[in-house]
UniProtKB/TrEMBL annotation:
Gene3D superfamilies: Hypothetical protein af1432. The lineage of its organism: Bacteria, Pseudomonadati, Pseudomonadota, Betaproteobacteria, Rhodocyclales. It comes from Azospira oryzae. This is HDOD domain-containing protein. InterPro entries: HDOD, RNase_Y/CdgJ. Residues 18-210 form the HDOD domain.
Length: 285
C-alpha cells in the first residue's frame, strides 16, 4: 500500500493547483444530513446555480438514473431519486465544473467518469464490501487527477497513451517517470481537500496497485473493494463507450476475481449483464 510523506506533498504537487471544495457542496451536505432536511431548501441551494441545476437534471435523465419519464426540475429529481442520489449528481457536476474549465476536449473523459461512478454504484449492489454511495463517490473521483495534470502538462495526453499501452509496468510508474508525479497522488490530495472519507482517498492513492489484494497489504477491505469495483466498472464502461482501453483490465482481472472469490468467467458474466442493462436503458431513454 502506498502512503504519502506529508513533507513531500509540495514536491509531489509540482506546481499543480488543486481546486478547493466548493461552498455550495458543503452547504448541501450539511443540509442533506440533517434529520429534518428540507427538500425545498436543497432544491433552492442547487437552483441558485443555473448551470449546476441544468447539469444535475441532464444527468438524472441519463440511462444511469432514468426512471422512464423525464424529470424537469430539481424538485422532481429529489422526489424520484432521493437526497443521496441527487447529492452524487451535484458532486459530479461540481467536479466537472471545477476541473474542465469549459474544455470540450475533456467531454469524453467526463462521460466515462459519470458512467464509471454509476456502474460502481450498481456493482456495489451485486458484490459485497461497500455502500452504493461510497462506490459512486470513488468511481467519480478515482481518476480526478487526470484533468488536473492535463491542465498542468501540455503533453500529458501522450503520457496517458503510453501508460495505457504498457502492460509491463504499473500505470502510475509511467507518469512518475515522465512527470515526477501521477494522477493517483493528485487525486488523493484532492479527495482529502474535498473532505472525502479516508477509505475513498486511500483507495484513490492505490487504485493502480493491484498488489493491495494480497494479504497484509495494509489497505482496508473496503478500500480494496472500491479498487476492484472500479476496475470492473472501467471494463464495462470502456466497452459500452467503445474506449478500447484494456491494459489495466489485463493486469488486474485475476487479482480482482480472487479478491471476490470468483472466477474470471464469473466476472465476465457480471460485465455482460450490466452491459445489457446499460444498452437497454440507452435505447429506452
Amino acid at each position: 500500500m502506498r502512503t504519502i510523506d506529508e513533507t513531500e506533498v509540495s514536491k509531489l504537487l509540482r506546481g499543480v493547483e488543486i481546486p478547493p471544495c466548493p461552498a455550495v457542496l458543503a452547504a448541501l451536505a450539511q443540509e442533506m444530513h440533517r434529520p429534518d432536511a428540507s427538500s425545498t431548501k436543497v432544491a433552492r441551494l442547487i437552483s441558485q446555480d443555473v448551470g449546476l441545476a441544468a447539469g444535475v437534471i441532464k444527468c438524472a435523465n441519463s440511462p444511469l438514473f432514468s426512471t422512464g419519464s423525464k424529470v424537469g426540475s430539481i424538485g422532481e429529481a429529489l422526489g424520484r431519486l432521493g437526497f443521496n442520489n441527487v447529492l452524487n449528481l451535484v458532486v459530479n457536476e461540481l467536479l466537472r465544473k471545477n476541473l474542465s474549465q469549459n474544455n470540450h476536449a475533456m467531454d469524453r473523459f467526463w462521460d466515462s467518469a459519470t458512467y464509471c461512478a454509476g456502474v460502481c454504484a450498481k456493482l456495489a449492489e451485486i458484490l459485497p464490501g461497500t455502500s452504493r454511495d461510497t462506490a459512486y463517490t470513488f468511481g467519480l473521483f478515482h481518476d480526478c487527477g487526470i484533468p488536473i495534470l492535463m491542465r498542468r502538462y501540455p503533453d500529458y495526453k501522450k503520457t496517458l497513451g503510453e501508460a495505457n499501452r504498457r502492460i509491463d509496468l504499473p500505470f502510475t510508474a509511467i507518469e512518475d517517470e515522465i512527470h515526477g508525479t501521477n494522477h493517483a497522488v493528485i487525486g488523493y490530495l484532492m479527495a482529502r481537500n474535498w473532505g472525502l472519507p479516508e477509505t475513498v482517498s486511500s483507495a484513490i492513492l492505490s487504485h493502480h496497485d493491484f498488489s493491495v489484494f494480497n494479504d497484509g497489504s495494509g489497505l482496508s477491505d473496503e478500500s480494496c473493494t472500491l479498487i476492484a469495483l472500479a476496475l470492473l466498472a472501467e471494463r464495462i464502461v470502456g466497452t459500452f463507450l467503445r474506449l478500447n482501453e484494456d491494459g489495466e483490465w489485463e493486469k488486474g482481472k485475476g487479482a480482482v476475481a480472487g479478491f471476490f472469490g470468483l472466477t474470471e468467467t464469473d466476472l465476465n458474466d457480471i460485465v455482460d449483464d450490466l452491459l445489457f442493462k446499460l444498452d437497454s436503458a440507452r435505447k429506452a431513454a
